[in-house]
Amino acid sequence: MAGAASLIHRLPPFRPLLPWLGGDLQTIRNWLVKPKPPIADWPVEMLGFDMADGTGDRLVGVLQRPISDHGFPLVILVHGLTGSSESSYMRTSAVHLLRAGYPVLRLNLRGAGPTRGRSKSFYHAGRSDDLHRVIGALDGRLAAQGLVLVGFSLGGNLVLKYLAERGAMAPVTAAASISAPIDLEATQRRLSQPRNRLYHRELLAWMLRERGPDALGDDIRTIIDFDDRIVAPAHGFKDARDYYRQCSAGPMLGAIRRPTLIIHAGDDPWIPAASYRAFDGATNPRLTLLLPRSGGHVGFHARNLAMPWHDAALQQFLATLR
Question: Of 104, 88, 82, which Cα lies nearest the Cα of 36?
């Protein structure tokens, strides 16, 4: 895509912040060192988006505007598994974007954040129709200067799937994904490995708590069990593997028709980088893939930068669009 070469040229290479060396430390720093970005410095507007599937469910977004109107596009941030608008990476990215002059909407997916325990249905990695509904319901004045989608982890897969499905009809200016599980089955195989036992146990516990008492069960011992017995039947998939096959964004990347930045770390402990290396970027010049050797999962804590490296890359990418 135009501007991609200049982006890569101007972006400093990722160098991990000491002592957070390696994918695991980069990943767990998000929990060990609780960032406190000054998100309250910008007034908040709560937006609700009713879903049109008869459930009565609604998605809730947190809108904040920069102090001065620079005429920049609205950026919608989409969280990952067990996340919400209040996740540290969402708040951190929002602060840096607001400082740069972008209005930001931190979107809670169905059943997350303020609607946890209030929704009849729930988000999953492929529920792109919900995203389409939100975009279609936006006040036109909010997106008058354009619209940028940014997804983290599961939210990244959701954004990429949405873009691929909509193709040239996607009503967005550009998009980005950070640490997206674009091959869901490969991701589950990686998480099931003995080296990831602690990650797997904690993720599954969070997923079960997120769904509430009805989801609890001694027979659900793996995330694949969870997807097989809870996610798949609730959303019309035959089983977990059918869900993974239909919802993985990787095989669809060639259909994306909007400038899209894709960031993933070679040492992400949850998502194999092979999922990205298998894609031939030359087949779709609209995609810019940044695949540094390190960074962990939604980590990218870098030395000599006042923000996570993925936020620096995102801002450089957005600048190439102006």
Answer: 88
The answer to whether the CB of 275 falls within 8 A of the CB of 185 is: no
**CATH 3.40.50.1820 location in the chain:** 4-183+250-320
Ranges of H-type helices in 21-167: 23-32, 88-99, 128-137, 154-166
Among candidate residues 311, 90, 152, 76, the one with its CA nearest the CA of residue 319: 311
Which DSSP symbol is given to 109?
P
Q: Give the global pTM.
A: 0.95
CA atoms of 128 and 162, how far apart (whole Å): 5
User: Which residues, in sequence order, are CB contacts of 195 under 8 Å at separation 6+?
Assistant: 269
Please state, as a whole number, how many other Cβ atoms lie within 10 Å of the Cβ of residue 212.
12
Check whether domain 4-183+250-320 has CATH 2.60.130.10, yes or no: no
Spatial separation of the C-alpha atoms in residues 152 and 300, rounded to whole Å: 13
Cβ-based neighbour number of residue 171 at 10 Å: 13
Query: pLDDT (tens digit, 0 to 9) for every residue of the chain, 322 residues total?
Result: 445 556 666 888 999 999 999 999 999 998 899 888 999 999 999 999 999 999 999 999 999 999 988 899 999 999 999 999 999 999 999 999 999 999 999 999 999 999 998 999 999 999 999 999 999 999 999 999 999 999 999 999 999 999 999 999 999 999 999 999 999 999 999 999 999 999 999 999 999 988 876 555 568 999 999 999 999 999 999 999 999 999 999 999 999 999 999 999 999 999 999 989 888 767 899 999 999 999 999 999 999 999 999 999 999 999 988 7
